[in-house]
Amino acid sequence: MSDPITTADIQLIQRIIPHRYPFLLVDKVVDIDGTASAVGIKNVTMNEPHFQGHFPGTPIMPGVTIIEAMAQTAAVMVGTTMGLMDKNMLIYFMGIDGCKFRRKVVPGDVLEMRVETTRGKPGGKVWKFKGVATVDGEMAAEGEFTAMMDLQG
């Protein structure tokens, strides 16, 4: 039996989730603890397309993309632990609850997303997670989200 994977670089992330530019919103996932918890890292850069319109002259990462980045972190955590590399998995939001935004996220920030599973088990399709996103230790966003993980064929 091989050692569990505790870190996913961008190449492994792309083998697990289908997202690609401009909607791949996590650069690395570290501290993967089975399906219990993980930490996603997103390096926020000015060349991301949403900054053209959100907002001209005052670039701020949209809150919905922060929540999406947390969800992608959770999907990588589950996919890595369950060996879903190259399995053509799609992930759908089923619910987003209790989201709060506390700090602007701007180009140059490193967004750290801590996610933990609150419901779900290997083999199950529906999972619920709690996430907190921080920049330099300061909370930027938090929320809970439910997703369905669907293996295609």
Automatic annotation (TrEMBL):
SUPFAM superfamilies according to UniProt: Thioesterase/thiol ester dehydrase-isomerase
An annotated GO cellular component:
membrane
InterPro entries per record: FabA_FabZ, FabZ, HotDog_dom_sf
Chief location of this protein? cytoplasm
- Could you tell me the EC number(s) of this protein? 4.2.1.59
The UniProt record lists the keyword Lipid metabolism: yes
Spell out the reaction equation it catalyses: a (3R)-hydroxyacyl-[ACP] = a (2E)-enoyl-[ACP] + H2O
Where does this protein reside within or beyond the cell? Cytoplasm
Q: State the Pfam families in the record.
A: FabA (PF07977)
- Give the matching Gene3D superfamilies: Hotdog Thioesterase (3.10.129.10)
Query: From what superkingdom does this record's organism come?
Result: Bacteria
What is one GO biological process annotated to this record?
fatty acid biosynthetic process
The active site lies at: H54
- What molecular function terms (GO) are annotated for this protein? (3R)-hydroxyacyl-[acyl-carrier-protein] dehydratase activity
Q: What does this protein do?
A: Involved in unsaturated fatty acids biosynthesis. Catalyzes the dehydration of short chain beta-hydroxyacyl-ACPs and long chain saturated and unsaturated beta-hydroxyacyl-ACPs.
Family of the protein in this entry: Belongs to the thioester dehydratase family. FabZ subfamily.
Q: What is this protein called?
A: 3-hydroxyacyl-[acyl-carrier-protein] dehydratase FabZ
Q: Which organism is it from?
A: Pseudooctadecabacter jejudonensis
**Name of the coding gene:** fabZ
